[in-house]
Predict the 3D structure of the following.
Amino acid sequence: MVVQVCASGTPARNRLAAVNLANHGLVGRRGRTSGVRVNRPQQNDFESGRERSRLMRYAGMGLELAASIIGLTLLGLWVDYRFHTRPTGVLVGAGLGVVGGLYNFLRAALRLSAAEKPPNRARDTRAGNEHDEEQ
């Protein structure tokens, strides 16, 4: 939210403006505007971009799952209409959509979870054993 402040230090004209200015740290002593905006600490742009990217990947995974189920079910419906095989095409299409969609969903979820974990450092087992022998 952007608040416009008069740089001359004139007092706020109405109560709502005074409250908005006070909430944003823009009112100095005696109710006069200081003309200086106090910035709130914001999240690092790099971190917020990374978080947004991660959330968009998860949203894309869900949309991909739904699209595969709906798309293959509609394909099965078309097969039923074209070849007069009433419930078979829809059932096979929906089944293939669920299986294929879940396969892609789980594969992507495992890939994302592996990317989020910090790398494992290999421990030197010999150093641990030597330490145990000294005690």
About this structure: The CA atoms of residues 28 and 34 lie 5 Å apart.
